Amino acid sequence: MKKLFTILVLLTTFVTLNAQLNIAYFTKDKSASMDPGAGEEPVLTMLQADERFVVTLVTDASSDPGDLSGYDMVLLSEAVGSGDPICGYLKGVNNRFLNMKVYAYKSGVWSWGTADDGPSPNLKIKVIEGMESHPLFKDVTIDGGLVTLFVRGTDDYGASGEKGNNYAHTFAAMTGEIQRLAYPDGALEADAVSVQAVDDPTASIGGTTIPQKYVMLGFNDGAMRADGATNLTEDGRKIVMNAVEWILSDLLPQSGVKDNALGKNVNAYGIKGYIRINTDMPTQVTIYSIDGRIVKEATIHGSTSIPCKSGLYIVKVDGEGMAKVFVTK
Predict the structure, then answer these.
(1) Residue 167, SS3 per DSSP
(2) How many angstroms separate the CA atoms of 7 and 168, rounded?
(3) pTM for the whole thing?
(4) What is the structure's pLDDT at 150?
(5) Domains (ranges, CATH) in the chain?
(6) Pairing state of beta strands 97-99 and 73-76?
């Protein structure tokens, strides 16, 4: 009973400290054009399933969004067309910003540089030497400097094709610290970039200040949604979530129960529809829902995947501590 009380206190602390953050998600309804096998936007569904966030979906790509100061982060989906007015309205917006629309950089929109589709095959990014330890690559598999983002190439609507990574190059004048983290494997331009991060309020591109934390991820919408939204790899998903968490890092309160913070003999993490636990010896594991209910008790040895609905859980491992784990849909 005392152990359960301690866990419930920690859970209560976590819920109290972690007020949900508000995300404005700008996208465009492309359902009528998408390949029949395409799924929903995986970035959207991942954020909607996360207990830490309240996502406001905006599908009107033609209107001025007005005051966005009530949002902790703005996300511009790659589904939006570069010619849609919303791209222009969001240029230099004074918000923490995750931009997945590389073609917003092109002349006549933001005029920050040139946007292109990645070279074929277009499934991998090359991490810039020395940037492997950047928070955007936390827990991401980097093999020979490369990260695999997509299973196959597609077109803009999820059908067969050669798209995956979009990237920018030939930039307008830049000031301040603008980190070039990765580019499409095989891109020849010396300044090619498909993953970019800014945390310098004095930084600017083409005379436009980037006033708050900013990340550009050049992941094509059709490639992410292909095959029932399974074409984006787990490493691709991790980069997206790492980007969100980096942008919001100082707004995501800490508690006594930390992400995946278990001992050296065990680890636990969420994947789509499951909590996966790896142990090197027989270990008693208890999984709690966020409201303190026991979801699963078991002795585990080796690698075990436990089915769970999307949401937040606390994994308690005897002798190893407790960790919070997020499961996506």
Answers:
(1) strand
(2) 48
(3) 0.75
(4) 98
(5) 19-251 (3.40.50.880), 258-327 (2.60.40.10)
(6) parallel
